[in-house]
Specification:
seven-stranded mixed beta sheet; 46% strand; globular
């Protein structure tokens, strides 16, 4: 069983920054592909970013490239999402997800169906 707990959400003005954290349980965290997704009110959940076990390979949603950075610290069992230059359109509940079945990132990880564990989410609100 894997538990994921997100933190770091909040209210920020447009142009500001937030850093989300996701703490994971499980002795083999370093073998998981980790992802961040978000869901805005009235919209479907969408992919934001993903990272391989080795912190070398990453994927990003086009609209966040250059603004968001995903990273991980396997020693701390934690994955991060640094969000800069935030826009009102980034307002959503942000979810951390883990694919415990594979270490290597693939295009499949852009879909939420690739992940088998999810956190409870953390709210990010960007005011204009």
């Amino acid at each position: 069983q894997v538990q994921l707990v997100e933190s770091g959400g909040g209210l920020v003005q447009a142009g500001g920054s937030l850093r989300l954290s996701c703490a994971a349980s499980g002795r083999t965290f370093s073998r998981y592909v980790m992802g961040w997704f978000r869901q805005a009110p009235g919209k479907e959940r969408e992919f934001v970013a993903a990272i391989s076990w080795s912190d070398i390979s990453t994927y990003y949603k086009d609209s966040v490239k250059g603004r968001f950075t995903i990273s991980r610290d396997n020693a701390k069992n934690t994955v991060y999402l640094q969000m800069n230059s935030l826009k009102p359109g980034d307002t959503a509940v942000y979810y951390c997800a883990a694919d415990t079945n594979i270490q290597y990132i693939a295009l499949a990880h852009l879909a939420d169906s690739a992940y088998d564990y999810w956190g409870q989410g953390t709210q990010v609100t960007v005011s204009s």
